[in-house]
Specification:
Blueprint: E1 8-11, H1 16-32, E2 36-42, H2 48-53, H3 57-79, E3 88-94, H4 97-104, E4 111-115, H5 121-127, H6 130-137, E5 141-145, H7 149-154
Parallel strand pairs: 1-2, 1-4, 2-3, 4-5
Helix pairs in contact: 1-3, 4-6
Length: 172
């Protein structure tokens, strides 16, 4: 591996798991001198198929702006802003998270860092298993950062759904 050729790609979504992956990526970048590329992927509300049926450029710009804001918020929550002592770039991409991250981490000497775990079975059904996809398809090393213990301590093993869980507050 040539000096300076390694990149660190971190998957960011704004979740606590992805903040752990972002922190690990920056720590690895600081210790090795490798640049960090933080990647947040997004899709239109309802998915790409729903957007193709009823396209709205204004909504598309709003969704993209919200994704960019989520990226800024992730850095603010993880570090209080952009971290010092490491070269960090961020990228907001419209597309599915797993395939996009694997495509960006295409070099053998790259390091792909993603968060994993701490989800319920419903979370896996709704969001997919991005970590599993990356580990199965990446051509580079993948570091899966476990969630903090706090998530496991706060979330009960079984949740009994109540009507209040689905209530929507009335405005005005």
């Amino acid at each position: 591996m040539a000096a300076g050729s390694r990149r660190i790609i971190a998957g960011v979504s704004g979740s606590i798991r992805s903040l752990g992956a972002l922190r690990a990526a920056v720590a690895e970048g600081r210790s090795t001198g490798a640049p960090v590329l933080a990647v947040l992927t997004w899709a239109p509300a309802g998915g790409e198929l729903a957007y193709l049926r009823a396209p709205c450029p204004l909504l598309l710009r709003l969704w993209e702006h919200a994704a960019r804001q989520r990226m800024q918020d992730a850095f603010a929550q993880a570090f209080g802003g952009m971290p010092d002592g490491v070269s960090v770039r961020h990228m907001v991409v419209r597309g599915p998270p797993g395939p996009t991250l694997v495509e960006l981490a295409h070099r053998r000497d790259d390091l792909l860092i993603v968060g994993y775990g701490g989800r319920t079975w419903l979370g896996y059904v709704a969001h997919g298993a991005v970590t599993r996809y990356c580990m199965a398809h990446a051509r580079c090393q993948v570091l899966a950062v476990p969630p903090p213990d706090l998530i496991r301590e706060l979330r009960p093993r079984y949740h009994k759904w109540r009507a209040e869980d689905f209530a929507v507050p009335l405005v005005g």
